[in-house]
Design goal:
It is built from 4 helices and no strands. By secondary structure, it is an all-alpha fold. It has a domain of 36 residues. The longest helix has 15 residues. The protein is elongated and about 50 Å long.
Length: 83
């Protein structure tokens, strides 16, 4: 391939790969939802991140401070922390 053809190919490739705009997170979520319905994918159950993280913290025998910190980050109130 000659240098001229390589330059022409690269300029066309760059024009096609340039992003005109970045979609909003809501638009991405909506598009992914429509795609999942179209592909007939199984929906995953909603996971309680706070409960899951607190289980890992207690199973790893980490200090109670980590549980309190995690709860404050997730803005979840600690109802029964075994410290």
């Amino acid at each position: 391939m000659s240098v001229g053809k390589q330059a022409k190919f690269l300029s066309v490739a760059l024009e096609q790969s340039c992003v005109q705009h970045v979609p909003t997170p809501d638009a991405i979520l909506q598009l992914c939802g429509r795609l999942a319905v179209y592909l007939e994918l199984d929906q995953f159950p909603v996971v309680d991140i706070g409960l899951l993280a607190s289980r890992y913290i207690t199973e790893l025998n980490l200090p109670c401070m980590y549980l309190i910190l995690m709860c404050s980050l997730l803005t979840v109130t600690v109802t029964s922390a075994k410290c």
